[in-house]
Amino acid sequence: MARGSKPTIRDVAERASVSLTxxxxxxSGRSGGTTRISQPTQDRVLAAVSELGYxxxxxxxxxxxGRTDLVAVAIGDLEWPWDRALATAAARILPGYGYQPxxxxxxxxxxxxxxxxxxxxxxxxxxxxxxxDETMTELARRGVAQVVISETMQPAGxxxxxxxxxxxxxxxxxxxxxxxxxxxxxxxxxxxDRPLSRYRRYVAGLDRAGIPVDEALVRTSHHRxxxxxxxxxxxxxxxxxxxxxxxxxxxxxxxxxxxxYRLGLRIPEDVQIVGVGNSTEGQEADPALSTVGPDPIxxxxxxxxxxxxxxxxxPEGVRVPAPWKLLLRGTTVQSDGATSPVPDSADAASxxx
Length: 353
Known about the structure:
By secondary structure, the protein is α/β, with parallel strands linked by helices. It has helices spanning about 10-15, 20-30, 40-50, 60-65, 80-95, 110-115, 135-140, 165-180, 200-210, 225-235, 250-260, 280-285, 300-310, 345-350; strands at about 70-75, 100-105, 120-125, 145-150, 160-165, 185, 220, 245, 270-275, 290-295, 320-325, 325. The longest helix has 14 residues, at about 40-50.
């Protein structure tokens, strides 16, 4: 073995004075059949592995035996509470079923899965309005286990956990418009005018209350924590600042809380803030974040993938709905449980807080 190079299975075979087949058989943990490996030979192989520090190539082994014992978790960005919660749940639950999670960001999951990199994949990174996906269709044809979090997709050889945010966001916006007429919005992307987007639901909430959309009260975070914080600072320093902020993600809402405190504003007395996602970070914040979201679903989606891997799910797939609701906490409700009477635009603009 060359100095500095990684030991190979051939190095192990030479050290133990056995064939490559024998080393492979011992390391695979197989038993029974017509092949018999004596205990002294097995001990010699394992001793060579230990002495050389050999680490088997799990991907290559997986291809040979038809499984990898890996599960891919495809997410958009670990900065986002929703994505981080999904990755955390997978890391906590999957090892108990004999699988290790591989976290993949953005579009990296496509080539990884098409090359046979994992036994299954949990997809949290699919556009809200996507009706189908060629990669998912091909993986389903191959029989690869998949679970996708999607409002719009239907099962097609994979399972769907279907968020149903409409009712919850309507409830959240109706709550805000009942108390405010100047409601700022921090949205994730400027491409937020799709029919199912959270921003369009913000606009619809204003329409129901007869409040015109004021573009001066809308900012975009571009999926970035620093941009969300800057957006909140801009909104809260307007001459006629909003007295409430609806953020299309909990991360943006938490940055709005941070900005409000920097400017000396009280929450919820001076400004009320509602996010979307029901993230762990929002629940544990001080004050706890009012938000729109489902009951915790990440354990559920991981379990759905395990059940598909174990053949417990119908081949055609299942769709499991996950309704969302408004959860009022400290950014809209005072510690005594009363809804804080935030002053509306006229008082806020005149400096009466």
